[in-house]
Amino acid sequence: MRYPTIADCVGNTPLVRLQRLLPADSSNTVLLKLEGNNPAGSVKDRPALSMINLAESRGDIHPGDTLIEATSGNTGIALAMAAAIKGYRMILIMPDNATMERRWAMEAYGAQLILVSKEEGMEGARDLALAMEAKGEGKVLNQFGNGDNPEAHYYSTGPELWAQTQGQITHFVSSMGTTGTIMGTSRYLKEQNPAIEIVGLQPAECAAIPGIRRWPEAYLPTIFERDRVDQILDISQEEAEHTMRELARREGIFCGVSSGGAVAGALRIAEQVTNATIVAIICDRGDRYLSSGVFAPR
């Protein structure tokens, strides 16, 4: 008998119905994909394992090599787990305003952490990763430009949602960071039914929502294809955090700020349509944001 490894536990996450945040008289169904149920706690487990496995299969990397990646948190944790599974040394570069929970999780998996300033941000982290690769210090997986990132969602997240909704999904809502989740899932779902509406979330001007970005043009992920997204919504810091807290207190769903933003977007869509099946991605768990104070009583 073959028993599973931890890598076999990535994906096939639950899809649950929103109960109390949706008005009782709504004709719509809002469903949430609980990606925090992945072993390293986020949707990024899928592309992290995919990027390493597919790079290995092409002979681009070999166990024992050093991998480098810029991250705001979830991808770093997922890559640290995947590197531990597969036998790689992992160097992660992130802004120093990341919560301690995220830093500690990466280090718990054995990754080396390098911090850049809040002012340098993810752009600075990405530049440093490429500079280190140029010096021969390791191989950058480049989640922002690596087709293996959306490919993971084309072959897992998309098919799971289609099967779990029995083909009834009408809208897919996802926060956008690297854009891998929305790119791969959109591609799959549109192949099944071109009428499915794909909705992306970005932070409103001046909002700082962990995991999602309003990228300067020069840093826009090269995996992003604008025509795969039907509508882009701006989400304010206040709306994302309020919805995140409401999800915990009224639905028992403990998640991060970007997930709160995705659900806020789904609820906006639900106000505009009827008889729809709207799916939003809950990309991680709330416990990695506790030290930031976002769950403190208001």
The share of residues in helices is 25-40%
Strand order of the largest sheet: 1-2-10-7-8-9
How many DSSP-defined strands? 10
What fraction strand?
15-25%
Largest sheet: 6 strands, mixed
Radius of gyration, in angstroms, nearest whole number: 18 Å
**Total helical elements:** 9
> Are there runs of 5+ residues with pLDDT below 50, and where?
none
User: SSE string, helix = H, strand = E?
Assistant: EEHEHEHEHEHHEHEEHHE
| Class of secondary structure makeup | alpha/beta
InterPro entries: Cys_synth, Cys_Synth/Cystath_Beta-Synth, CysM, P-phosphate_BS, TrpB-like_PALP, TrpB-like_PALP_sf
Protein name: Cysteine synthase
Cofactor: pyridoxal 5'-phosphate
Catalytic activity: O-acetyl-L-serine + hydrogen sulfide = L-cysteine + acetate
What does this structure look like?
The protein is of the alpha/beta class and 298 residues long. The protein is built from nine helices and ten strands. The protein has helices spanning 45-58, 74-86, 100-108, 121-134, 148-155, 157-164, 180-192, 237-251, 257-272; strands at residues 15-17, 29-34, 66-70, 89-95, 112-116, 139-140, 171-175, 197-203, 231-235, 277-282. The termini are far apart.
Features:
10 strands, 298 residues, alpha/beta, 4-stranded parallel β-sheet, single chain, 6-stranded mixed β-sheet
Q: What is the structure about, briefly put?
A:
It holds the Pfam family PALP. With 298 residues, the protein is α/β, with parallel strands linked by helices.
Chart the SSEs and their pairings.
Blueprint: E1 15-17, E2 29-34, H1 45-58, E3 66-70, H2 74-86, E4 89-95, H3 100-108, E5 112-116, H4 121-134, E6 139-140, H5 148-155, H6 157-164, E7 171-175, H7 180-192, E8 197-203, E9 231-235, H8 237-251, H9 257-272, E10 277-282
Parallel strand pairs: 2-10, 3-4, 3-6, 4-5, 7-8, 7-10, 8-9
Antiparallel strand pairs: 1-2
